[in-house]
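Training component of the fellowship. As part of building independent skills, the fellow (R.M.) carried out the full modelling exercise for a liganded target. The chosen ligand was S-adenosylmethionine. The inputs are recorded below so that the supervisory panel can assess the work.
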Amino acid sequence: MLTTCESGNPPPVTVPVSSALFLPLPSISVFSDPRTSPMEDDRLNSPSTSVVTLEVLGHRLQLSQDPNSKHLGTTVWDASMVFVKFLEKNCRKGRFCPSKLKGKRAIELGAGCGLAGLGMALLGSNVISTDQTEVLPLLMRNVERNTSRMMQANPDSGLAASFGSIEVAELDWGNEDHIKAVDPPFDYIIGTDIVYAEHLLEPLLQTILALSGPRTVILLGYEIRSTMVHERMMDMWKQNFVVKTIPKAKMDSKYRHPSIQLFTMEVKDQSRYRNPGPTANQIPESSRGSDKDGQSCEAEDARDATASENIMDLEPGKIDDWEIRRLGSMAARLLREVKIT
Ligand SMILES: C[S@@+](CC[C@H](N)C(=O)[O-])C[C@H]1O[C@@H](n2cnc3c(N)ncnc32)[C@H](O)[C@@H]1O
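Fellow's submitted model of the complex:
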């Protein structure tokens, strides 16, 4: 049985899977049993659960979140919105169009509520969305509900054919058993807002290296909150990958912000793989993205990133959800700096 309502909405409607899903459902499974995790179902249905909605690639995604939990993964973070809106803007041609992503294996690290992985699956990739065990129940719920809702809302649109698949798995960075269980290497490794603490940089890097092969493309998006962590991360990554900053001009005109950056990375030292297949230079340009696509605008973006929060040009009575989110983020940052004596 699947329930198809969020708390705060009308009472849940229980829909038998067999009669509701008249289209082939994309594959959804979970590698670890979320019922054994500390986040119980009660918590999922508590009044503190709210719903974030976002239109992505013509579908209205609804993500349950629980910002009051003690875990960062139960909130939808802004970088994930910037990430999916970037995919949406750049999927008509080039390296992110469905013909390039169809059937490609992608893994999302630190998926949280799962928005970025859903975006990749909508473009045809077969995604494994991963996180720590505490986050899996909410992640699983978001994946299940959004896929079944979209399939029911679009019975004739060809969505069943264009959608890839999405699975949920436990993956704690650095855990060799978890890494082995997802069967690397992947064509794409994605992650949003997973770089925020210095002690996580090394396990994250080692996990990305263990999941990648010679042709893997890594796509990361995150909000710079600490210059120190950002610089340390860039040093570590540049030793292992060719890192390109995605120019702000390539992002959605609304879902972008000076402190949120997106990066593509490709493995530098391909000799680390025993059977590397074609080298970076032999990989067709079409599947690696053109220079123009990956063009680094580091000077421009460095200026952006170090700039203070941009002053928004707000029209009274016309503040939208994104502006409210960014104002909230600015307020939280200011409050952190207030010292109560
Ligand atoms: C700031 S949240 C971002 C969540 C989501 N990607 C988003 O953008 O909304 C950071 C995520 O990284 C995950 N994370 C942190 N440390 C981790 C670790 N050692 N192994 C796996 N995931 C981890 C958290 O569980 C959380 O989901």
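The panel noted the following from the submitted structure. The chain has a mean pLDDT of 79. The longest strand covers residues 212-223.
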